[in-house]
Amino acid sequence: MEYICNPVNINYRYQFNADPRLHGQMQICREAADPSMICFQGRYYIFASMTLGVWVSDDLTHWENHRLPHELPLYDYAPDVRVMGDWVYFCASRREENCDRWRTKDILNGPYEKLEGSFPFWDPNLFIDDDGRAYFYWGCSNITPIWGVELDKETMLPLGDKRVLIEGHPFEIGYERIGEDNSQLPASDDEIEAGYRAFILRQGVPEAQLPPEVRPLIRGMFSRKPYIEGAWMDKHNGTYYLQYAAPGTQYNTYSDGVYVSDHPMGQFRLAKNNPYSYKPGGFLPGAGHGSTMRDIRGNWWHTATMRISVNHDFERRVGIWPAGFDAEGELFCNQRYGDWPMAAEGDPWRNPAWMLLSAGKQADASSWIKGHEHGKATEENAQTWWQAASNDRKEWLQIDLGKPMFVHAVQINFADDKIDIPCPGKIMGGSQARYIEERDLLTQWKLEASLDGEAWFVVEDKSSAQTDLSHDLIVREDGFSARYLKLSDLSVPYGQKPCISGLRVFGLGQGEKPSIPVFTAKRTGDLDMTVSITAQADTVGYNILFGERPDKLYHSYMVFEPGEKRVGALIRGREYFVRVDAFNECGISEGNCVKL
User: Fold this and answer.
1) What is the distance between the alpha carbons of residues 172 and 183, in angstroms, rounded to a whole number?
2) How far is CA 579 from CA 165, 232, 269, 356, 548, in A?
3) Total Cβ atoms within 10 A of residue 263
4) Are 385 and 368 in contact, with CB atoms under 8 Å apart?
5) Fold of the domain spanning 519-595
6) Residues 6 or more apart from 434 whose CB is under 8 A from it?
7) What is the DSSP letter of 571?
8) Does the pLDDT at position 592 exceed 80?
9) What is the CATH code for 355-508?
10) C-alpha to C-alpha distance for 385 and 376, rounded to whole angstroms
11) 275: helix, coil or strand?
12) Which of 495, 542, 577, 580 is positioned for an S-S bond with 591, CB 3.0–4.6 A?
């Protein structure tokens, strides 16, 4: 059996961001986002922003990064790919000028044939209907909508005027509100104007000198309105599913919603199950701006953007989750345990076979830096990390599971902490200028295990690895017994002091599942609910599940602390059912379902 553990285990490239708004500062982080995933000639391909290439897999679990030809717009965001017959069509985003397209019959080897574009766009998506007609969707802004237009399938030029298809409605749709946990409503007109005037004053540029097209963009910065972006279209049983992302990539609530219609150009109505891709909790949150694909066995998968957003708002990763359509035609995605190892085959609502063993467990280390102590490596938060005091390969990190347990998988998550080195190449682009690291860097380590902390055995030795996998996954399907795990012989890119945001261990403990959780759920407004969970000693964490029916609890929010949790993703006028499940090292216990 093959296993997936998000984020996708691939070499994420470093970005040297030289955004003019940073006033000469350089921000450095790894990034990949906005994934378009297709199946072409029996293989799977993911095209993601800022990767300089394409990820290729035969089984959706093992991915390799292949470089793409330099003439493609590899520094443009949100690459879009679609299969049409023997061809694969490719394009990416560029607001400032017309966006060209390329097509090829061989993704890895080319050649790529260029098709001249006729208009600018951002966050593109090409859709080929069953009858061969081509449609195009695009949009990425908090002031403009998602548009659609039919294209001539030979020239890829528009066949008429664009049409508004999706706009934001943050006063009616809770998951579209910006902020952590969808916490903020849009600003008033007075607040927007005050922010606009203050910004102009700080820049020292008279308003009359600002180009007319720039003024609404500046006002948009202070609107607190959601970004409506990342369109993707699928068709299932005669219904068209136009997917979109909101409210912003830097929030834990970055999610994908969906509208449905009986025609590719609408009119579209908000589907009952929304947001269908939503992962605000757990180790690595976020599940927005993605794509949905059917594999060669007929199973559906959704891939989307996950956020870290510490060193830069666009510090992001890519995740993959099982998806599908239920008996009533509702598009869903299972993210209940969305950053735990999952089998690559089976029921899309399958529970994980292995439980999280490392959450909150005691850690020790050879050294650490204040604010980045060893305990950060087990607190299930990708935004915090242990950092060694030096880059000496003698540094080590160790965790104690508390008692011997049966280990089946370990995920080693490396982080970055304020890298400050000269840019190794030429800055490219305009408003989001950057350099993408072209060299293949190395991340090396050794993992050992022990039952008593004295006699150690090697689980995996990558101390001489020629790979750069910052979220590496080690699977031992047969398992092994261990109480202690030790990570050592560490070497990471640019000679950094190694940082670990999560030394995550999965397997099975010896004991009982947790008690059935006790909770209350109350709707506190049109868009919000509060779930209060009673603490219980035998529990590691909880999953708050909710949805339109007791048998359709498609949304989830994982938390590791009992008490009160506000969830702000509800839709005005809709009824909800809520259930809280508890989990520990030995299994999952389902709670009772209640109606809000």
Assistant:
1) 14
2) 34, 30, 27, 21, 12
3) 11
4) no
5) Immunoglobulin-like (2.60.40)
6) 15, 16, 17, 18, 19, 50, 75, 427, 428
7) B
8) yes
9) 2.60.120.260
10) 5
11) coil
12) 580
Element (H, E) at 221: helix 215-221
Backbone φ and ψ of 218, nearest 5°:
-65, -45
The two tokens of residue 492 are 């990471």
Q: Which two tokens stand for residue 526?
A: 């049109």
Under 8 Å between Cβ of 435 and 427: yes
At the topology level, CATH places domain 31-186+224-343 in Tachylectin-2; Chain A (2.115.10)
Which part of the chain has CATH 2.60.120.260? 355-508
Q: Over 378-422, what HEC string results?
A: HCCCCCCCEECCCCCCCCEEEEEEEEEEEEEEEEEEECCCCCCCC
Query: How many CB atoms within 10 Å of residue 388?
Result: 24
SS3 of 593, please? coil
pLDDT surpassing 90 at residue 583? yes
Rounded distance, CA 547 to CA 334, Å?
12
> Which one-letter DSSP state was computed for residue 227?
P
Query: Model confidence over 301-357: pLDDT tens digits?
Result: 999 999 999 999 999 999 999 999 999 999 999 999 999 999 999 999 999 999 999
Where in the chain are all domains bearing CATH 2.115.10.20?
31-186+224-343
Q: Do you find a cis peptide bond into 275, omega within 30 degrees of 0?
A: yes
Please, what is the average pLDDT of the chain?
96
pLDDT > 90: percent of the chain: 90
Kindly state the greatest CA–CA separation across the chain: 74
Strand order in the sheet with 529-533: 519-523, 529-533, 563-567
With contact defined as beta carbons under 8 Å apart, do 455 and 377 qualify? no
**590, pLDDT greater than 70:** yes
Per-residue pLDDT of 213-244, as tens digits, reads: 778 878 888 889 999 999 999 999 999 999 99
Main-chain dihedrals φ then ψ at residue 196, nearest 5 degrees: -60, -50
Residue 559 pLDDT > 70, yes or no?
A: yes
Looking up tokens 């959601």 gives 226
Name residue 213's amino acid.
E
| Encoded tokens for 397 | 């990190």
**Which part of the chain has CATH 2.60.40.10?**
519-595
Pairing of strands 3-4, 342-343: antiparallel
- Retrieve residue 69's tokens: 């030809």
Torsion on CA atoms 486, 490, 492, 496, rounded to nearest 10: 100
Contact 186, 248 (CB under 8 A): no
What digits encode the pLDDT tens for the residues 383-437? Answer: 999 999 999 999 999 999 999 999 999 999 999 999 999 999 999 876 678 999 9
Contact status, residue 585 vs residue 406, Cβ threshold 8 Å? no
Nearest in space to 86 (alpha carbons), one of 116, 107, 100, 67: 107
